[in-house]
Amino acid sequence: MPAQLFDQLHSDWKLVLSKHKVLIDRIEEKLQRSDCAPQFEHIFRSLSHSIEESKVLIFGQDPYPSKGHANGLAFSVDSSVSPLPPSLRNIFAELATDCGVERLDGDL
Fold first, then answer.
1. Does the pLDDT at position 60 exceed 80?
2. CA dist 50 to 7, 83, 91, 95, Å?
3. How far apart are CA 62 and CA 14, in angstroms?
């Protein structure tokens, strides 16, 4: 059995989200009864790093239902995914024109 969702959180996030542990446990119960993306161990991937390391967090439904695409970070896909999903290509186009940032793969 995979680690529990709350146990996957960095200690900083555990402290901040402790008042929501019951809700997180209820979410986990529902997830274990369904087939979902990303893989269970990647659901709170963005919260596995300390709060201080985080610049931006985007919470929401992962837009990639295809097996092997969703990797637990919003709009991110594994570096092996080609071609990139259209939404990610649009994000990269905006980064290139607005900030001069060029990306080679979709692993954010």
1. no
2. 14, 32, 25, 25
3. 22
> Left (φ > 0), alpha (ψ -120 to 50) or beta: where does 75 sit?
left
Given a cut of 90, is residue 16 above it in pLDDT?
yes
Indicate which residue of 12, 62, 78, 105 is catalytic.
Answer: 62
Report residue 61's pLDDT band, with 50, 70 and 90 as the boundaries.
Answer: low
Instruction: Return d(Cα 91, Cα 72) in angstroms, integer.
Output: 17
- Of the candidates 96, 10, 98, which has an alpha carbon nearest to the alpha carbon of residue 51? 10
Q: How far apart are CA 32 and CA 25, in angstroms?
A: 11
Q: How far apart are CA 87 and CA 99, in angstroms?
A: 18
Tokens representing 106 are 């979709």
The residue with tokens 């900030």 is 99
Q: Is 62 a catalytic site residue? A: yes
